[in-house]
Amino acid sequence: MAETLDGLAPLRDIIAEHGLAAKKTLGQNFLLDLNLTSRIARTAGDLSDTTVIEVGPGPGGLTRAILAAGAKRVVAVERDRRCIDALESYLVPHAGGRLEIIDGDALEQDFQALAPAPRRIMSNLPYNIATPLLIGWLKNAQAFTGFTLMFQKEVADRITAKPRTKAYGRLSIMCQWLCHVRPEFNIDKRAFTPPPKIQSTVVTLIPRAEPLAPASWNAMERVTAAAFGQRRKMLRQSLKSLGLDPSLAGIKETARAEELSVVDFAALARILEAKSGSPIRPVISQVSD
Ligand code: SAM
Questions:
Q1: Do 150 and 26 fall within a single domain?
Q2: Whose CA is nearest to atom 10 of ligand 1?
Q3: Model-level pTM?
Q4: Cys-Cys link to 161, which of 55, 119, 172, 191 (CB 3.0-4.6 A)?
């Protein structure tokens, strides 16, 4: 099993042999230090009964670490044909039938259909599509046992931010409403080839058995979009467009969005839903805005 992975060529040699010069358009910043990729894989704990879905295996640094950590199976989605060919030729034959590569765009995948439960998502995410992917997964968070994801530090800070901080916003609320979130560790930009402009952070998200407080996804998106769309304004002003009176949820009209807890937002979302009498339509703007 893991033994068959020993003796594989170093990633630098794989990159040179297969001509995997990094493409900026695909968000390619490769992690070549196998100690670091092992450290990331280990944060997920025991994977022996779990199918890991990896987005963007690239030359396979994290993939190797997940296999070596004993994952039952890895299904890796990659859209760079060069990386797929490299992985098929050097890694799949040594993975003892535990590695499958899917040639495709992660944004178009039905992740639940890719693997049976228990399934977990692990990825050094392509930065340009990291937030839309996360939002898609959150909508069905309970289908996954967890997420081990690397983001730009600034995005990781928003995911894990607490109220009354600059980073606290829509992304913090949607993530923390549905998941326990934990920052793991930062990775210096010099660890990547080529180095990105910014630091990265590994984050673990574990879906809650139940959302932190009841509310519908669309109503949560609506109230958070309205409140943080004018984050410096008092709620009596920022929630006016929704015809929502914060005092009905026991919240001061003079409070600002960043002072409210996730539970406060869920209370506002329920009032909005009750008031509108019909299902709330989805918000067009992204949570990442
Ligand atoms: N996992 C590798 C590592 O840690 O070194 C590579 C990570 S690199 C930041 C992101 C990877 O995602 C690249 O291999 C890139 O080709 C792939 N990628 C970019 N956009 C993608 C998409 N829409 N669907 C699937 N893979 C994508």
A1: yes
A2: 126
A3: 0.95
A4: 172
Q: How far is the CA of 58 from the centre of ligand 1 (A)?
A: 5
The confidence score (pLDDT) of residue 1 equals 40
Q: Classify burial at 274, counting beta carbons within 10 Å of its beta carbon; exposed 0-12, middle 13-18, buried 19 or more.
A: exposed
Order of all β-strands in the sheet with 119-124: 99-103, 73-78, 51-55, 119-124, 146-152, 200-207, 179-187
Q: Is the CB of 60 under 6 A from ligand 1?
A: no
Atom of ligand 1 nearest to the CA of 58: 14
Q: Which residues of the chain have pLDDT under 70?
A: 1-4, 284-289
Atom of ligand 1 nearest to the CA of 31: 5
Q: Which atom of ligand 1 is nearest to the CA of 37?
A: 4
Cα distance between residue 189 and residue 198, in whole Å: 6
Count of structural domains within the chain: 2
For 274, half-sphere exposure in the C-beta direction (CA atoms, 13 angstrom radius) is 12
User: 57 in ligand 1 pocket by Cβ < 6 Å?
Assistant: yes
Element (H, E) at 134: helix 130-138
Residue nearest to atom 8 of ligand 1 (CA): 28
How distant, in Å, are the alpha carbons of 40, 120, 129, 139, 274 from that of 111? 21, 10, 15, 12, 32
Q: Atom 18 (ligand 1): residue with closest C-alpha?
A: 56
Please check whether residues 26 and 110 belong to one and the same domain.
Answer: yes
Q: Please indicate, yes or no, whether residues 63 and 182 belong to a single structural domain of this protein.
A: yes
Does ligand 1 lie within 6 Å of residue 47's CB atom?
no
Backbone angles phi, psi at 186, to 5 degrees: -90, 155
Pick from 237, 222, 227, 233: nearest CA to 280: 222
